[in-house]
Write a structure and sequence with these properties.
Arc Repressor Mutant, subunit A; alpha+beta; 53% helix; 434 Repressor (Amino-terminal Domain)
Length: 297
């Protein structure tokens, strides 16, 4: 018979340790227990005694109830992919952390939905199950449909996150501890609602706007794409390129942006940066998409 704090949830301990980027040995040093013991707690093979339980609460600054609350059932990720801006194995800790934060975000959303009403999900989503069949023309068209559905007109968007939240997307920001990790998005199979996390490690407002629009692109374009496609390197690059194209089209609609560029020189683009709130590099790519480039640029 196991002894210890009855009802202790080892998965909660694993989540907190991952969020704090602590190894088993590092946590063991802080609470005076071996890494093998902590591993057994996380796997549910053992239960911490009262003294160790209190130390865990102190180290992570959480209430006792946190460790006693069961983790919601996990739905197989293969049903809908998580879209990360960095897929290299060296970034796995940051990806795991961002996925954990999205899980917490959804858990909080479910809790608050019992007493509050979120905006209904109003996001045009492309009905495509193979990213290789998505054309640039379709991307441009659905970006236009999003602006039309949300009554944004063709002017620069003052607040991209606010637009997404008004459309029923739950958004958050977090420091992920890796500057090459820009964000992650996922459409939950539990409530059908999109969730987006934007990394704030770079603390660059213009970059964050584009990151948000990029993640919106994944939600709009790739919600029905199988996770297996995202796992393939050659298709991952295609998916990321498509999300980039959507972000450009959404932030810089052709009918208005092209009229204001007039003559795409660096000086002209620099003068438009504060109005459109995108980087010069992004404007150059957009000019290329719209066949506006000249030899001078």
């Amino acid at each position: 018979m196991r002894t210890g704090v009855d009802g202790f949830q080892g998965q909660r301990l694993n989540q907190l340790r991952m969020a704090q980027n602590l190894t088993l040995a590092e946590l063991g040093e802080q609470i005076g227990r071996s890494s093998s013991t902590i591993s057994a707690w996380e796997k549910g093979n053992q239960l911490p005694e009262a003294e160790s339980f209190d130390r865990l609460c102190h180290v992570f600054q959480v209430s006792r109830m946190w460790f006693l609350k069961p983790v919601p059932p996990v739905v197989q990720e293969s049903q809908r992919p998580y879209f990360f801006r960095s897929q290299a194995s060296v970034h796995k800790p940051a990806r795991d952390r961002s996925q954990l934060y999205l899980a917490w975000l959804q858990e909080m959303s479910d809790f608050f939905q019992e007493a509050m009403e979120w905006p209904d999900v109003n996001v045009p989503m492309l009905d495509a199950d193979d990213c290789r069949l998505i054309s640039d023309e379709e991307i441009e068209e659905i970006a236009r449909e999003c602006r039309e559905a949300w009554k944004l007109g063709s002017a620069p968007i003052p607040n991209v996150i606010q637009v997404m939240e008004n459309a029923g997307i739950i958004c958050t920001r977090a420091t992920l501890g890796h500057v090459k990790m820009d964000g992650v998005s996922h459409v939950s199979v539990l409530d059908g609602r999109p969730y987006v996390l934007i990394a704030e490690d770079k603390a660059n407002a213009i970059r964050n706007r584009f990151d948000a629009a990029h993640e919106l692109g994944h939600v709009v374009l790739h919600s029905k794409i199988p996770a297996a496609q995202y796992a393939k390197k050659e298709l991952y690059d295609l998916l990321e390129g498509q999300a980039h194209r959507f972000a450009s089209a959404f932030l810089m609609p052709p009918e208005s942006f092209a009229q204001e560029v007039v003559w795409p020189t660096l000086d002209n683009l620099l003068s438009l940066k504060s109005r459109w709130k995108v980087s010069v590099a992004s404007m150059i790519v957009r000019c290329r998409d719209l066949s506006l480039l000249t030899e001078q640029l």
